[in-house]
Each structure stands twice: as structure tokens, then as C-alpha cells.
Amino acid sequence: MFKRILIANRGEIAVRVFRACRELDIEPVVVYSQADVNALHVQLAERAYCIGPARSADSYLNVDAILTVAKATGCDAIHPGYGFLSENDEFADACAQAGIAFIGPSGDVIRAMGNKAAARKLMMSAGVPVVPGSDGAVETAEQAKELADSIGYPVLIKASAGGGGRGMRRVFEPDQLIPLFEEARSESVACFGSGEMYLEKLILNPRHIEFQIMADQQGNVIQLGDRDCSIQRRNQKLIEESPSKALTPELRERMGAAAVAAAKAAHYVNAGTIEFVLDPDGNFYFIEMNTRIQVEHPVTELVTGMDLVREQIRIAAGLPLSRTQEEVVQKGHAIECRINAEDPAHNFQPCPGKIDFVHLPGGYGVRVDTGLYSGYTLPPYYDSLMAKLIVFAPTRLEAIRRMRRALEELVIEGPANNTDLLHQIMHHPDFVRGNYTTGYLEANMDTLLSWSRVGEEEAKA
Ligand code: ADP
Predict the structure, then answer these.
(1) Range of 140's domain?
(2) What are the φ/ψ torsions at residue 112 (nearest 5 degrees)?
(3) Pocket of ligand 1 (CB under 6 A)
(4) Is the CB of residue 207 less than 8 Å from the CB of residue 417?
(5) Are 368 and 389 found together in one domain?
(6) What is the pLDDT of residue 458?
(7) Among 148, 240, 268, 304, which is most buried by a count of CB atoms within 10 Å?
(8) Annotation says 367 is catalytic
(9) CA torsion angle for 92, 96, 100, 102 (degrees, to 10)?
(10) Mean pLDDT of the chain
(11) Closest C-alpha among 114, 76, 94 to residue 272
């Protein structure tokens, strides 16, 4: 087992990995930017090193600085968390060259899955269903137009290097294809430095269902069940739950088997996620593979009882999976709400700033993963995630009730945040019935916000 792990991340995930290291008797070494001097992961750690200025490019994406700290402190492994360098193939290669274990798949696997058009192709050859669309990348807007005309509208233009919903455009009308293609391509060049695009049929009213995968260096691959991540704003997840209400046991079995086949086709090692869209008729299609631990991993931990970060570390150290597929059982129900410093009434605009006071909920079946504390100032340079509130209960309805009361206990004084919106969703009939798709939030935003306003008026009266 490793002696010392460098955690190349910040925020709640740095704290999450720190805890896993401590529990495994591994010494955690943390790094931070000048904007994160007061961050919780820095305060918890005995060994913390500043790696540069606030801008991510100068600190959390600074490969040289991170490797220098890792070598100087004698770390034998690096955990990249999610975001930042977690899906950077060159970083994974650089770790390998330095003789430091990268806790994740190899650079080659990250490269293969990181190009989404190429990943699509690989999945097609492995017999995993993909959304009808281009056979790999499309070169020009004219080619895209020709293809879209033959697939039929609506279509979705996507960036091969895309992420976080950027470089993506929906096209409903043929005459919109070329201008939207150019728009998506410029956005992709600006965000990801690549203008490689591909095309998919736009699945109407889908659910976003993903499967957690774990694979060891011995070639064993298991899946740890599904997560429903359909509650999204601007193609970004807000609430996740496991298991999904949309799956029958038979469909879950088939999707799980497809996820394992996908991971095997990619020669996958470590934790990964196979994302699918599920159409209203029960057809599912691969959309992408994420080659890292996900933000929403705790819901899977709670329903399977398996510590995924611990498992990641064990796998990187060469140990075999701690469970066989037969030993993985999804039990009970878990829901995660992302508590973000953002204003839902103003297009989810980020609202960093000082947390004057915070009270975190607790009690039976409640877990909070966070880097917050009273007096902490959220820097404006990074994402707006403040905390993940996760609940576990025997049934879905009990989990919803538990989430309602946990959200009621949560107090955050300071920046605007989305706690009220999450609470409204927990009371909304379609959510309670489990009757929602990826269009849910956009379709119901006005109703949900008007409920918040009624609450505010009542409070003032
Ligand atoms: P990103 O990496 O930007 O998150 P994804 O490929 O994961 O991109 O897509 C983000 C979201 O867009 C998905 O969660 C899903 O809601 C939606 N989406 C992706 N592909 C399709 C599709 N072909 N049809 C309908 N919705 C889609």
C-alpha cells in the first residue's frame, strides 16, 4: 500500500480524499493556490504546499509544480479528484514517468475516452448502443448538414473535447444547422482548444442514467449500479439519486451489462462512469465515459456500502477489487443535492463571498461532504459547489422526507445559494413521483421560483 498520497485538488473532494487516506493510514499531502490559504483541506493537513497563484492554470493545473511537491515530499501516488487534472492524459503520463502512481486509468485510456467522437466509435465496435449520429468526427459544417438531413431533426452538435455542456447546440430546423455548428465550434475552440465536432440525434425527453464502474489491474470489471442525474440546469447536474425510478430490474441488468462491456472495450482500470441517455420508450444509448471519480459518487457509496475512494486507492496500489459482481447489492435509496453558491433567480449566476455562518445538518442517514465552515470566504476563481448534502433511507419516499428535513436544518448566511430551490424540488409532485427528465428544471423553473417568493412573502408578513 502507498505511504504518502498527494491530493491534487481543492474543495470538498480534497477533504473527501484526505479522509480516505487517513482511514487507510496513508499520509495525505495537500496542495493549494494562494486563494485557498484558508481552505479546509489546508487546515486539516499537516503537510500543505502552495503551488501558485489563484488562477487554476497557475496552480491546480500546474503539472510541474504539483510533480515537484510530490517528488520533494516522497509521495508514491497522486489522487487527482475530479475536474482540474483528473482527465488530463499528459498528467497521467507524467506521473507514470516520474514513477508516481496516478490514481485513475492510464494516459492511453484517458486519451481514448477523452475524445468523445472516438469513444463513440469504440463503443459501436463493442456492441454498446450509441445515439444515432456521426461515425466519429465531422470535418465541416456542410458535412454536418448533409448528415443531419439524413439522420433527421432535431440533432445535437457536440464537441469531441467537450465537457460541462459547453460546445453543445441543439438544432431543430435544418437552416439553423450551419450557423449553430459554427457557434458550437468557436465555443469549443475557446474552451477546449479543439474544434473537432460530432453529431448525435437529439433524444427528446430523455433521462440521464449513468453506471458506476470499478476495474482492477487484474482485468476484473464490476458495475455498482445506476444513478439518475436528470435534474440538471444548463446540462449540469444538480440532484442525483440511486436507484433510478425509471429502471425496471430487467433494464437495469441490461444497462449494467452494457456498462461493463463498455469498460472492458476501453481496457479500463480504476473508477469510471458510463453515461447513457434513456428515451421514454426504454431505449438507452451511450453518450460518454468519465474517467475519474464523479461529484455524485456518494449516492453509490450509500446504496452499495462500498467506499469508492478507498477502492480507487487500493486498485492503484495493485490490489484486486474487494468485491465480486455478485457481492454488489444496491440496497435502500440515496439522494444527493448540490448546494451551490449561485442565484437560481438570476440564471444560476455564481455568488462567491464570505460565509458569515454555516450550520450543517446531521442525524441518522445524513452525510455532508463540504469544505465550508463559518467565516470561510469562497474564492471567485473556482466552481460554485459549496457542499453536497446526501441522504440515505430504506425507501425513496423516506429519502425525500429526510432530504427535506436536512435542507430545513441547513443554514448558510452569506452568499446567495440554491437551498430553497432544492427544497421546492423535494416538494414538487413530479419529483416526488419520480416523473422527470433532463428538461424538468427548465420546464418547472417558474413554478419553483414562484413557490420561493410565496415563502419569502409569508416570512415577511
Ligand atoms: P458534457 O460532457 O458536456 O456534460 P454530455 O455528453 O455528458 O456532455 O452531455 C451533457 C448532457 O446533455 C447529458 O446529461 C444529457 O442531459 C444531454 N445529452 C447529451 N447527449 C444527448 C442526446 N443525444 N440527446 C439528448 N440529450 C443529450
Answers:
(1) 132-201
(2) -65, -40
(3) 131, 156, 162-165, 200, 202-203, 206, 208, 232, 235, 275, 277, 287-288, 438
(4) no
(5) yes
(6) 75
(7) 240
(8) no
(9) 30
(10) 96
(11) 114
